[in-house]
Amino acid sequence: MSSAEVLAAGEPPTPVPAAPSGSRRGLPPLARYLLVRLALVVPMIWVLVTLVFVLLRVIGDPITAAQGGRLTPEQIAERKAEAGLDRPLLVQYWEYLSGLLHGDFGRSLTDNQPISEVLRVNGAATLELSFYALVVAFAVGVPLGRLAARYRDRLPDVALRLFAIVAYAAPVFFVGLLLKLAFTPFGWPSSGRASTSTLLTLEQVHPRTNILLVDAILWGDPRYVLEVLQYALLPALALGLLTGGVFLRLVRINLLQTMRAEYVTSARARGMAEGRVIRKVAFRNALVPVVTVMGMQVAMLLAGAVLTETTFEWKGIGYALAEYLKARDFLAVQGIVTVIALVVCVASFLIDVIVALVDPRVRF
Questions:
Q1: DSSP codes of every residue in 47-90
Q2: Helix 222-258, helix 172-183: angle, nearest 10
Q3: Which of 18, 137, 197, 229 makes an SS bond possible with 243, Cβ 3.0 to 4.6 Å?
Q4: Do 39 and 345 meet the contact criterion of CB atoms below 8 Å apart?
Q5: How far apart are CA 221 and CA 200, in angstroms?
Q6: Distance from C-alpha of 220 to C-alpha of 223, rounded to nearest angstrom
């Protein structure tokens, strides 16, 4: 009996169960995924902040470590009282957390400067250097990874894989020294962020961002823009090649895996040229793991920035951290390391958001 005959006989049709919708199950998968990730960020930040506080107290009294032998016991006791380090540890911990919530990271012991001011000025320099390094990493890693995948197991592929291993394994300070030795004889600037005259000029920019490229653009003189980029080239290469080697290998491996997918085979069967198959069909999907790994590369960039900034005298957070470590100013070190931990956590969450928007599979 057909369905028409059943309806004609007056029998109701069997109801078809509706597909479960996001509204009936609660929040959509993307919203649920992001809420879970956001909920995990808070305890992660708390654990990292607590670890920084505890580890820097395990080494002993920061005042004695920084000023021991140069001040009398009475002066050290006075400094400890001023910094609140004579109070019980739990009280110090509570004040530390309360200060973080209000953006107060304390003051440095060596120059009595607010650490928040150090982070504002030097953090802009590190942000600028990290941006340059990511540009270099993408410019090197992504196209060379495509090239290596296209010429798999041939001479270009072998040479590029060797280059990726060397770029990733070479210490960043060693690469920086090699670049300085190679470019300095030709008059290329290899230390600092700009010449003294340029720095003094850009201090007059209003509003000042402390990102020299932006300040030079706001000043409106192309000569300053060019000079800032010249000074940034060598540090950006030293730090960017480290991440570029990782991107090259990731793009190559994931592009080769994507090239074996059925939709790529179908594109080939329709007569599409191999170069266009890679460019139009496989390449976008191969970039998803690269975006995922970017969150981990943020931590690598910040760790490499300490050595890069010290090598090129680029006065960012890494440079300030190295100087405070040499001065045994552990209160300043505590504030800088805390901010680095916060940046890594926030960057990891933002990368999760981007990946969830690009690849729906991670939402379930």
A1: HHHHHHHHHHHHT--HHHHHHBTTB-HHHHHHHHHHHTTTS-HH
A2: 130
A3: 137
A4: no
A5: 14
A6: 9
